[in-house]
Amino acid sequence: MKRFLFTLVILLVAAGFAAGQKIGYINTETILNKIPSYKTAQGQLERLRQDYQKEVEAGYQKVEDLYKTYQTDKVLLTEDMKKRREDEIINKEQAVKDLQRKYFGQDGSLAKKTEELLKPLQDKVANAVKETANEDGYGLVIDTANNPSIVFTNPRYDISDKVIKKLGFN
Questions:
Q1: 97-116, pLDDT tens digit by residue?
Q2: Are the beta carbons of 32 and 125 closer than 8 angstroms?
Q3: Count of domains in the chain?
Q4: Is 35 a domain residue?
Q5: For residue 63, is it within any domain?
Q6: Is residue 14 in a domain?
Q7: Residues 139, 23 contacting (CB under 8 angstroms)
Q8: What sign results for the dihedral spanned by CA atoms 30, 35, 36, 38?
Q9: The pTM is what?
Q10: How far apart are the first and last CA of the chain?
Q11: C-beta atoms surrounding 72 within 10 Å
Q12: Taking burial as the number of CB atoms within 10 A of a residue's CB, which of 38, 46, 86, 163 is the most buried?
């Protein structure tokens, strides 16, 4: 019985504390899009992605061409020659897949470049959010940018503009 009362008291205190908290929200995409260097970084990343994509597509096209040539020549080839050609096609395809992973994989060149270019900006925004939240007494700030489960937000609690001003952009 004592545990139940203790738990009830703790829950009531926690509920009272939570009810007194100011809650705000931000949209990091809106904030980042106000930063010129973010747009520049996005452009660089898109160009890099396109270059990588062209290179990978060219590699797959070469594999496709090798396969078509093999299919055409197949009737004229000895078993040994067929095996060598098949191995060549398989090796080229594997090399293109490796290249694709090198560029687009989780630890690939594009991911590393994205982190290199965007992490400092994201850190800057995060610090501005923390400062704004501390200055204005927000106990909780939610990011609505990539959260499809948030159904409604009252614009009155949107502190994105305050963060943008703190960053020095309008």
A1: 999 999 999 999 999 999 99
A2: yes
A3: 1
A4: yes
A5: yes
A6: no
A7: yes
A8: negative
A9: 0.73
A10: 58
A11: 9
A12: 163
Assess contact for 33 and 39: CB atoms under 8 A.
Answer: yes
In a domain, 5, yes or no: no
Whole-angstrom CA distances from 154 to 25, 52, 150, 157, 158 are 9, 42, 11, 6, 7
Residue 117's φ and ψ, nearest 5 degrees, are -85, -40
Range of the domain at 91: 23-167
Per-residue pLDDT of 27-69, as tens digits, reads 999 999 999 999 999 999 999 999 999 999 999 999 999 999 9
What is the spatial distance between Cα 52 and Cα 41, in angstroms, rounded to a whole number? 16
What tokens were used for 27? 């949209």
**Token pair in block for residue 58:** 């060219």
HSE-CB of 122 using CA atoms within 13 angstroms: 10
| Residue matched to tokens 């700030």 | 141
The single-letter DSSP state of residue 158 is B
CA distance 160 to 166: 10
Helix (H, G, I), strand (E, B) or coil at 69: helix
